[in-house]
Specification:
alpha/beta, 12 strands, about 15% strand, globular, binds pyridoxal-5'-phosphate
Length: about 400
């Protein structure tokens, strides 16, 4: 076989994603793009903020010495300083540029952090449902993913996490606002989780809390995302501007480490080396400079909120069951039949494309992404209704 056994197995595991993509493309070719209701992609369709374009134009038209050259692996020092100001304002902690590493998106940052901390066979606890790529990222660096149940509303179950901790656990990886559930973990739960980790640290067992939060700014109804940096000493934030500015293709994000983290300087040196040896070398140069100038802007979350509300109204009157999302742009709906993959296939007969919950470690649900216009959502509601009524 030309490819490794491991990659071949990974391709098998995620083959339904490719299949869905292919079937979606077939439906679009057959019925026309406007007649297919594609809720499968988490690719922001809202334009980036106007200021992004003006700063991009400004920076790309200036001849800034060295802007297209290599730079220190963690990024331009002045960019890191600017991002530290953003983190300070968002998290209410004192943090400096040295504690920020510019990365190729949140995905790049997570891989850098995991490569730095994991020894072969060490475990990472991940509350369900979770972003499917975590399994691959953890495995990339010899670790083992330990998915754990959450409560019925997808909030953290601290008791279950406590029971999953053993000497091989190196980190807990949370994602809030969550993809796919839209759940924002409460401050109370973050404090309880941090207390649990502090108790372990006192016994000499250091477990890092890693928070993947690219949806931090996309929250609704006055919900705010509690800071892990504020409450947990051994904590790392991995995030990006992919959703904040609708620029996922630009591959720009960062890691922020708690300045009080044990052995912080050694960890930072590890992050810097791993950014290099994973082949990222450094985050893209021009976009680093652009995001550094955008601390006062974010995408308009109201647009997503209106879509969420239309979707929730339509789905609940059609008879679907789901938890109201606090943030992100996903709604995680209970499958009306036990087999979520079968129900996703059933929805395809109505030209509606969604993703099975099995892909997020949580069978029995399906994910609806509302990176899609209000008009399409409104036209899709009768299809969702027909699909459930025809069961
Ligand atoms: N983490 C979560 C939960 C995501 O949903 C995504 C992308 O959809 C990522 C990480 C990757 O983000 P980025 O494109 O910034 O690397």
């Amino acid at each position: 076989m030309p490819i490794s056994t491991k990659i071949s197995e990974s391709m098998q595991k995620s083959s339904w994603i490719r299949k869905m993509f292919e079937e979606g493309a077939m439906l679009k070719a057959k019925y026309g793009v406007e007649n297919v209701f594609d809720f499968s992609l988490g690719n922001p369709d809202i334009d980036p903020p106007q200021k992004f374009f003006s700063i991009l134009k400004d920076i790309s038209s200036k001849k800034i010495k060295g802007i297209h050259g290599y730079m220190p692996n963690p990024g331009f020092p002045d960019v890191r300083e600017s991002i530290a100001k953003r983190v300070k304002a968002d998290h209410g902690i004192d943090i400096k540029g040295e504690q920020i590493i510019m990365t190729c998106g949140a995905a790049g940052g997570l891989n850098v952090a995991l490569k730095t901390i994991l020894n072969s066979g060490e475990r990472v606890i991940v509350p369900k449902p979770y972003f499917a790529e975590y399994g691959f990222y953890i495995d990339n660096h010899g670790g083992e993913i330990i998915p754990v149940d959450t409560k019925s509303d997808f909030s953290l179950d601290i008791g279950i996490i406590e029971n999953a901790i053993d000497d091989n656990v190196r980190a807990i990886l949370i994602n809030s606002p969550n993809n796919p559930s839209g759940r924002v973990y409460t401050e109370e739960d973050i404090i309880a989780l941090s207390g649990l980790l502090a108790k372990n640290a006192e016994k000499g067992r250091i477990i890092y809390l890693i928070s993947d939060e690219p949806y931090r700014e996309i929250v609704y109804d006055g919900v705010t995302v509690p800071s892990i940096l504020k409450h947990c000493k051994n904590s790392i934030v991995a995030t990006s501007f992919s959703k904040t500015f609708s620029i996922p293709g630009e591959r720009i994000g960062y890691l922020a480490i708690n300045p009080e983290c044990k052995d912080v300087d050694m960890l930072l040196a590890g992050f810097i080396l791993c950014n290099r040896i994973l082949g990222f070398v450094n985050a893209p140069a021009v976009i680093q400079r652009v995001v550094a100038e955008l601390n006062d802007v974010t995408v308009d979350a109201e647009i997503y909120k209106r879509r969420r509300d239309i979707l929730m109204d339509g789905l609940s009157s059609a008879g679907y069951d789901f938890i109201k999302p606090d943030g992100s742009f996903y709604l995680f709906c209970k499958s009306p039949i036990d087999d979520d993959v079968e129900f996703v296939r059933h929805l395809q007969k109505y030209n509606v494309l969604v993703v099975p919950g099995s892909g997020f470690g949580t069978p029995g649900y399906f994910r609806i992404s509302y990176c899609i216009s209000e008009d399409v959502i409104k036209r899709a509601i009768p299809k969702f209704k027909e699909a459930i009524e025809s069961l």
